[in-house]
Amino acid sequence: MAARAVKGIGLFGIAAALLLISNASSAFAETTKERILREGRIVVGIHNRSPWGFRDEKTGEPTGWHPDILKAAFADLGVKNLEFQVTEFGALIPGLLAGRFDAVASGLSITPDRCKQVAFGAPDLQAPDAAIVLAGNPKKIHGYADIAAREDIVMGAGRGSVVTTNAGAAGVPNSRMLLFPDIESNLSALRAGRIDTALMASPTVIGLLAGKGADGLERVAPFDVGKAHTNFAAIAFRKQDVDLRAVYDEQLAKLKGTQAFASIMKKYGFGEQEAVPPGIATADLCNRRQ
Questions:
Q1: Residues 272, 65: Cα–Cα separation, whole Å
Q2: Distance between alpha carbon 217 and the CA centroid of its chain, in Å?
Q3: CATH number, domain with residue 186
Q4: What distance in Å separates the CA atoms of residue 194 and residue 168, rounded to the nearest whole number?
Q5: What is the average pLDDT score of the chain?
Q6: Count of C-beta atoms within a 10 Å radius of residue 231
Q7: Is residue 103 within 8 Å of residue 96, measured between CB atoms?
């Protein structure tokens, strides 16, 4: 009987010790921010689209608005090894949540729905909706109201893009919205006459029309979005990585207003229209009505 009691106490003691070790390990578990700063390395998701995050055709090196911002923001912290992984736009947030990336630096707009999934950094670029049409704007499209009112107009947009929400709110029916997995198929449909206009964020349109393959296309100017919200882009982190987001925001605040930041803006053709006005905060964008 005594032997059984001793044995029971021994097993209980082992279990208690293992529990203490487990709790201690959890208490001292390394955060994503700590690991990144220790290794000097961060894994970043992009969707290979200019100007957001893409591989330079000449050098093969990752570049783009958000990669350049992230590189500049983390440089002073010794994080100089940025490992970029390319995926489809619609797979960026799922990849982040699954732990494939530490951050997404590829043109995500801050929306209330996305804020439920990820922790956005401070807004770094204003990205109003913009429309691309064939040269001469054959159907004289000048805003969402035109698309909504005319049954002979079909628009194209990216799957999961914010412009589809804005178009729907303006009265454009789903039946006249064709959704595409990438920009190439969207523009191919425009050239082929399957759609009459391709809707994207303004910075995306700037990048496309400045590059190769833009012959025969033009931006609708002006394009009236009606009551649609102006979008603001930011780098996204996992919700549990609030300390990583906080240190990034600190670095971004230091970067803004510097010549380095102005040079990155100029590099991608951005100007006053794309600059974030004072007082625009991530928390307010996350809580606004859609």
A1: 16
A2: 25
A3: 3.40.190.10
A4: 19
A5: 89
A6: 26
A7: yes
Residue keyed to tokens 């549990």: 240
Three-state DSSP at 149 gives helix
Cβ proximity of 18 and 26 under 8 Å: no
Residue 101 belongs to a domain: yes
Torsional sign, CA 138, 140, 146, 149? negative
If you ran DSSP here, which 8-state letter would residue 160 be given?
Answer: T
Number of domains making up the chain: 2
Lowest mean pLDDT among 5-19, 67-81, 100-114, 185-199: 5-19
Are 53 and 122 in a shared domain?
Answer: yes
By the 8 A CB rule, do 201 and 208 touch?
Answer: no
**Contact of 109 with 201, CB cutoff 8 Å:** yes
Q: How many residues does the chain have?
A: 290
Domain span at residue 160 reads 129-219
> Cα(40)–Cα(77) distance, rounded to whole angstroms?
8
Residue 211 amino acid letter: G
Looking at the structure, tell me whether residues 190 and 155 fall in a common domain.
yes
CB atoms within 10 A of CB 125: 24
Place of tokens 């006053």: 272
Q: For the chain, what is the total number of helices (H) and then of strands (E)?
A: 12, 14
Kindly report whether the global pTM for this prediction surpasses the value 0.85: no
Q: Could you tell me if 45 and 170 lie in one domain?
A: no
